[in-house]
Amino acid sequence: MVSYNSAGTLRSCVEALAREGDLDVIVVDNASADESLATVADLPLTALSLRRNGGFAFGCNRGLEAGSSPFVLFLNPDARIEAEAVRTLARFLSAHDTAGLVAPRVRTAGGELELSLRRFPRLRSTYSRAFFLHRLFPRASWSDEDVRDPAAYEYAHPVDWVSGACVLVRREALERIGGWDESFFHYGEDIDLCRRLWSAGYEVWFDPSAEALHVGGVSAPRPRLRPILVANRVRYARKHEPRLEAALEHAGSALEELTHALLTLKGREVRAGHVRALRTLLRRTPHASRSVRRWSDPTGVEPPGRSD
Fold first, then answer.
1. Sequence-separated (6 or more) residues with CB below 8 Å from residue 205
2. 25, 137, 250, 258: which has the fewest C-beta neighbours closer than 10 Å?
3. What is the average per-residue pLDDT within 202-223?
4. Does 42 reside within a domain?
5. Of 307, 253, 300, which is closest to residue 277 (Cα–Cα)?
6. 167 located within any domain
7. pLDDT over 90 percentage in the chain
8. Residue 175, SS3 per DSSP
9. 29/48 Cα distance (integer angstroms)
């Protein structure tokens, strides 16, 4: 669990898990200003207080280093999962030697299905979103990266990648690929992790027999984080795709921010988020480097530890 100013949600997230004898809970606090760790000080868990907020992936790696279990659950501070669901995921990895990661079905606080399954980014989906074609063809595999077909959430199967709100990962696989990429300060680290697991010969699975609850959006409104999200999308492309395709991804992402800034009907705040994201893409070229500050947000928003 990576915490950043999560005093309001942290205890309810980890308390039940911390009291289970077969689960070791590690909370990594990314230099919170709200004394998040004080809310769990009486619980039987390991608490790591970091001196700086190095980002979600940075915190995940520090927690990984502090433990030794063969399977590692990464859970957002605004998510909940029952201990038996964790055991269900562990049994899945035990039974599937080629699986490096498994994710549960995720529901919102209102009980609705959260679209947590994703396809790897492709130029066709980037430009489709830029021209709002994903709205016209929401379930087409080419129009968007979100898997929107409800039937896909009813059975266990391999997927390209999953939302990092709640995932169980094989430690051996994590260590083989070098852990989380800390150059993704916030957003993009989950798709990068899944891509590298696939490249290393491991499978990424979804198993709906386990469920998690995700409140979502607790740390900061998503429009404020839009520049970081799109910057890391391009960073991912430059890391994993050929140079020409990465350049086209950069251009397509900028086009998407422009068209959505001009045509969105979701209000001034959302429009402002698209404008800031467009400025970010036009001002700088993201590099697939290890520098976590290379893509600092020009708006001055300090990203949280993690919240989708």
1. 92, 96, 99, 101, 102, 103, 156, 157, 158, 159
2. 137
3. 82
4. yes
5. 253
6. yes
7. 80
8. helix
9. 6
- At residue 133, φ and ψ (nearest 5 deg) are -70, -25
- Give the 3-state secondary structure of residue 186: coil
6 close to 305: Cβ distance less than 8 angstroms: yes
Instruction: Tokens for 207, please give them.
Output: 């198993």
3-class SS of residue 150: helix
For the chain, the 3-state helix, strand and coil shares in percent, each to the nearest 5, are 40, 15, 40
Residue 135 lies in a domain: no
Nearest residue to 298 (alpha-carbon basis) of 286, 280, 281, 284? 280
Q: What would the pLDDT profile of 214-270 be if each residue is shown by its tens digit?
A: 986 444 457 888 999 999 999 999 999 999 999 999 999 999 999 999 998 889 999
Burial tier of 276 (Cβ tally within 10 Å: 0-12, 13-18, 19+): buried
**Residues 85, 93, 191: CA angle, nearest 5 degrees:** 90
Mean pLDDT (the chain) is: 89
CB-CB contact of 239 with 114 (8 Å): no
**CATH number for position 41:** 3.90.550.10
* In the predicted structure, residue 37 carries a pLDDT above the cut 90: yes
The pLDDT confidence band at residue 285, using thresholds 50, 70 and 90, is: low
Tell me, what's the pLDDT at 139? 85
Separation CA 205–CA 222 (nearest Å):
27
Pairwise CA distance, residues 69 & 254, whole Å: 42
Run of H or E including 213:
strand 203-214
Would 67 be classed as within a structural domain?
yes
| Structural domain range at position 33 | 2-121+144-214
Whether this prediction's pTM lies above 0.90 is answered by no
Nearest to 89 by CA among 105, 113, 78, 109: 105
Q: What is the residue whose two structure tokens read 């001196």?
A: 51
Q: How long is the chain?
A: 308
